[in-house]
Specification:
The chain is mainly beta and about 190 residues long. It folds into two domains: about 30 residues; about 140 residues, Immunoglobulin-like, CATH 2.60.40.1290. Strands 1-2-8-4-5 form a five-stranded antiparallel β-sheet, with no helix packed on it. A five-stranded antiparallel β-sheet has the order 6-7-3-9-10, with no helix packed on it. The longest helix has 28 residues.
Length: about 190
C-alpha cells in the first residue's frame, strides 16, 4: 500500500506530465486554419423566402477574390421539363468580373465526387452572347438540350470579382413548342470571400 505522503509527492509529477501530453496533442489544432472548399454551403438563409425560388447546384473551383476560377452551373435531369432552345443567365450588375464569349461553353458533364473530378464529357456547340453591361448571357445551342438522364452545365472560366459577397445568377430557359416561352428554371448562388 502506498502511503498518502508518497502519493502527494507523485501527484504534481503526474499532473505536469499529463498536462504536457494533452497540450502536445491539442496545440496544433488551435493554431491551424482550415481552407474552405469553394462550394456553396448546404445551409442558406433567405430573409423573405420566395416560394418560386429554386436553388440549383453549381461548382466553383475557387472562392477567393481576384483568383482564377472555373464555374460549373449544372442543369440536372429533374430541372429540365422540356427541351431547351435558348438558355439565359441573368447576373447581378455588381458582379464585376470580366466575361468573354470564348471562355464560356455548354457541355454534357459527369459530376465528380471523392475519387473523380467533375469534367465535360461532350461539348455542345453553341452560340454565346453577352450583353454590353455584362448582366446577361444568352446561350443558343445548335441542337436543343434534350430531356434525358444526362446532366448538362454552363462552364465559365474567369477571374473572380474584386469585391466579396454572394451573387445570385438566375437561369431562364426557352423551351421548344408552338409558342416558345422563356421560363425561370432556378438560381445558382456564387460565394466570393
Amino acid at each position: 500500500m502506498i502511503s498518502p505522503r508518497k502519493l502527494l509527492k507523485k501527484v504534481p509529477k503526474l499532473l505536469i506530465s499529463s498536462t504536457f501530453a494533452i497540450s502536445t496533442i491539442l496545440a496544433p489544432q488551435l493554431f491551424t486554419t482550415n481552407k474552405s472548399i469553394a462550394a456553396p454551403g448546404t445551409f442558406e438563409i433567405q430573409w423573405d423566402p420566395d416560394p418560386s425560388f429554386k436553388r440549383l447546384k453549381m461548382l466553383q473551383s475557387s472562392n477567393e477574390r481576384t483568383d482564377r476560377a472555373k464555374y460549373h452551373f449544372f442543369l440536372r435531369p429533374g430541372e429540365r421539363k422540356a427541351a431547351i432552345l435558348q438558355l439565359s443567365l441573368k447576373l447581378p450588375d455588381y458582379f464585376d468580373a470580366k466575361l468573354k464569349e470564348k471562355k464560356i461553353s455548354l457541355c454534357q458533364v459527369k459530376i465528380g465526387g471523392f475519387q473523380d473530378k467533375t469534367k465535360c464529357v461532350n461539348e455542345l456547340p453553341a452560340v454565346i452572347e453577352i450583353n454590353n453591361d455584362q448582366t446577361s448571357i444568352d446561350i443558343f445551342p445548335d441542337q436543343p438540350i434534350p430531356v434525358d438522364e444526362n446532366t448538362y452545365a454552363v462552364v465559365m472560366k474567369l477571374f473572380n470579382p474584386r469585391k466579396s459577397g454572394m451573387f445570385q445568377f438566375h437561369g431562364y430557359a426557352k423551351s421548344t413548342g408552338a409558342m416558345p416561352i422563356s421560363s425561370y428554371i432556378g438560381s445558382w448562388t456564387v460565394d466570393i470571400k
